[in-house]
Design goal:
The protein is α+β, with helices and mostly antiparallel strands and 137 residues long. The chain has three helices and seven strands; from the N terminus they run βααββββββα. The radius of gyration is 16 Å and the shape is elongated. It has one domain: Hotdog Thioesterase (Thiol Ester Dehydrase, Chain A, Roll). Strands 1-4-5-6-3 form a five-stranded antiparallel beta sheet, with helices on one face. A two-stranded antiparallel ribbon has the order 2-7.
Length: 137
Protein backbone atom coordinates (compact mmCIF):
# COMPACT_ATOMS: atom_id res chain seq x y z
CA UNK A 1 0.00 0.00 0.00
CA UNK A 2 1.02 3.60 -0.46
CA UNK A 3 3.09 5.44 2.14
CA UNK A 4 2.47 8.72 0.31
CA UNK A 5 0.49 11.31 2.25
CA UNK A 6 -2.88 11.65 0.54
CA UNK A 7 -3.49 15.39 0.04
CA UNK A 8 -5.44 17.61 -2.30
CA UNK A 9 -6.15 21.34 -2.63
CA UNK A 10 -9.32 22.77 -4.20
CA UNK A 11 -10.17 26.42 -4.85
CA UNK A 12 -13.55 27.93 -4.05
CA UNK A 13 -14.81 31.49 -4.55
CA UNK A 14 -17.30 32.56 -1.87
CA UNK A 15 -20.74 33.29 -3.30
CA UNK A 16 -23.12 35.87 -1.90
CA UNK A 17 -25.51 33.05 -0.99
CA UNK A 18 -22.78 31.55 1.27
CA UNK A 19 -22.89 34.55 3.60
CA UNK A 20 -25.18 35.45 6.48
CA UNK A 21 -26.60 38.76 7.71
CA UNK A 22 -23.20 39.64 9.20
CA UNK A 23 -21.61 39.40 5.75
CA UNK A 24 -19.45 36.38 6.57
CA UNK A 25 -19.69 32.77 5.43
CA UNK A 26 -22.41 31.07 7.47
CA UNK A 27 -20.78 28.49 9.75
CA UNK A 28 -22.87 25.57 8.43
CA UNK A 29 -21.54 26.14 4.92
CA UNK A 30 -18.07 25.03 5.96
CA UNK A 31 -19.29 21.42 6.08
CA UNK A 32 -20.32 21.84 2.44
CA UNK A 33 -16.81 23.12 1.69
CA UNK A 34 -15.41 20.04 3.44
CA UNK A 35 -17.58 17.91 1.13
CA UNK A 36 -16.22 19.78 -1.89
CA UNK A 37 -12.67 19.08 -0.71
CA UNK A 38 -13.45 15.41 -0.10
CA UNK A 39 -15.18 14.77 -3.44
CA UNK A 40 -12.58 16.70 -5.44
CA UNK A 41 -9.83 14.76 -3.66
CA UNK A 42 -11.39 11.50 -4.86
CA UNK A 43 -12.12 12.83 -8.37
CA UNK A 44 -8.51 14.04 -8.72
CA UNK A 45 -7.32 10.51 -7.94
CA UNK A 46 -9.58 9.01 -10.59
CA UNK A 47 -12.40 7.87 -8.30
CA UNK A 48 -15.46 10.10 -8.51
CA UNK A 49 -17.81 9.49 -5.59
CA UNK A 50 -20.53 8.62 -8.11
CA UNK A 51 -18.39 5.63 -9.17
CA UNK A 52 -18.20 4.40 -5.58
CA UNK A 53 -22.00 4.60 -5.37
CA UNK A 54 -22.33 2.82 -8.72
CA UNK A 55 -20.11 0.04 -7.34
CA UNK A 56 -22.35 -0.31 -4.27
CA UNK A 57 -20.42 1.64 -1.62
CA UNK A 58 -21.20 4.76 0.36
CA UNK A 59 -19.13 6.78 2.81
CA UNK A 60 -21.51 8.37 5.35
CA UNK A 61 -20.27 10.95 7.83
CA UNK A 62 -20.19 9.67 11.43
CA UNK A 63 -18.71 12.75 13.09
CA UNK A 64 -17.58 16.24 12.12
CA UNK A 65 -15.66 19.03 13.82
CA UNK A 66 -14.99 22.61 12.77
CA UNK A 67 -12.76 25.18 14.44
CA UNK A 68 -13.51 28.71 13.23
CA UNK A 69 -10.48 31.02 13.38
CA UNK A 70 -11.19 33.87 10.94
CA UNK A 71 -14.22 34.82 8.82
CA UNK A 72 -14.47 34.43 5.06
CA UNK A 73 -16.46 37.02 3.09
CA UNK A 74 -18.20 37.34 -0.25
CA UNK A 75 -15.87 36.98 -3.26
CA UNK A 76 -12.93 35.66 -1.21
CA UNK A 77 -10.96 32.96 -3.00
CA UNK A 78 -10.46 30.10 -0.58
CA UNK A 79 -8.31 27.02 -0.73
CA UNK A 80 -9.66 23.81 0.74
CA UNK A 81 -6.75 21.62 1.80
CA UNK A 82 -7.80 18.00 2.25
CA UNK A 83 -5.67 15.32 3.93
CA UNK A 84 -6.73 11.70 4.31
CA UNK A 85 -5.40 10.04 7.47
CA UNK A 86 -4.39 6.37 7.64
CA UNK A 87 -7.39 4.07 7.87
CA UNK A 88 -8.49 2.91 11.30
CA UNK A 89 -10.17 -0.40 10.47
CA UNK A 90 -13.36 0.53 8.63
CA UNK A 91 -13.15 4.18 9.65
CA UNK A 92 -11.71 6.98 7.58
CA UNK A 93 -10.78 10.40 8.98
CA UNK A 94 -10.31 13.30 6.60
CA UNK A 95 -8.79 16.58 7.80
CA UNK A 96 -9.46 19.97 6.23
CA UNK A 97 -7.89 23.39 6.41
CA UNK A 98 -9.56 26.30 4.66
CA UNK A 99 -7.24 29.19 3.90
CA UNK A 100 -7.32 32.60 2.23
CA UNK A 101 -3.88 33.65 1.01
CA UNK A 102 -1.64 32.63 3.93
CA UNK A 103 -4.31 32.87 6.64
CA UNK A 104 -6.00 29.78 8.06
CA UNK A 105 -9.72 30.45 8.46
CA UNK A 106 -11.12 27.06 9.45
CA UNK A 107 -9.70 23.70 10.52
CA UNK A 108 -11.68 20.54 10.99
CA UNK A 109 -12.27 16.92 10.18
CA UNK A 110 -14.92 14.42 9.22
CA UNK A 111 -15.00 10.75 10.17
CA UNK A 112 -16.63 8.20 7.87
CA UNK A 113 -17.28 4.51 7.58
CA UNK A 114 -17.78 2.41 4.49
CA UNK A 115 -21.21 0.85 4.00
CA UNK A 116 -22.78 -1.28 1.30
CA UNK A 117 -25.51 0.65 -0.50
CA UNK A 118 -28.07 -2.14 -0.42
CA UNK A 119 -27.78 -2.91 3.32
CA UNK A 120 -26.28 0.30 4.77
CA UNK A 121 -24.17 -1.98 6.98
CA UNK A 122 -20.52 -1.23 7.66
CA UNK A 123 -18.01 -3.03 5.48
CA UNK A 124 -14.30 -3.06 4.85
CA UNK A 125 -12.98 -0.44 2.43
CA UNK A 126 -13.21 -1.78 -1.12
CA UNK A 127 -9.97 -2.75 -2.86
CA UNK A 128 -10.48 -0.13 -5.58
CA UNK A 129 -10.57 2.57 -2.86
CA UNK A 130 -7.37 1.28 -1.27
CA UNK A 131 -5.62 1.21 -4.66
CA UNK A 132 -6.57 4.83 -5.35
CA UNK A 133 -6.20 6.33 -1.87
CA UNK A 134 -4.07 3.77 -0.07
CA UNK A 135 -4.23 2.95 3.60
CA UNK A 136 -0.93 4.72 4.45
CA UNK A 137 0.20 1.85 6.68
Amino acid sequence: MSSEVARHTSQYRVRYSDTDKMGVVYHGNYLRLFEIGRTEFLRDRGLPYSQMEHDGYMLPVLEAKCEFLLPARYDDVLEIHTLVEPLDGMRLTIRYEITRAEATLVRGWTRHTFVRSETFRPTRPPEFFLKVVGDHQ
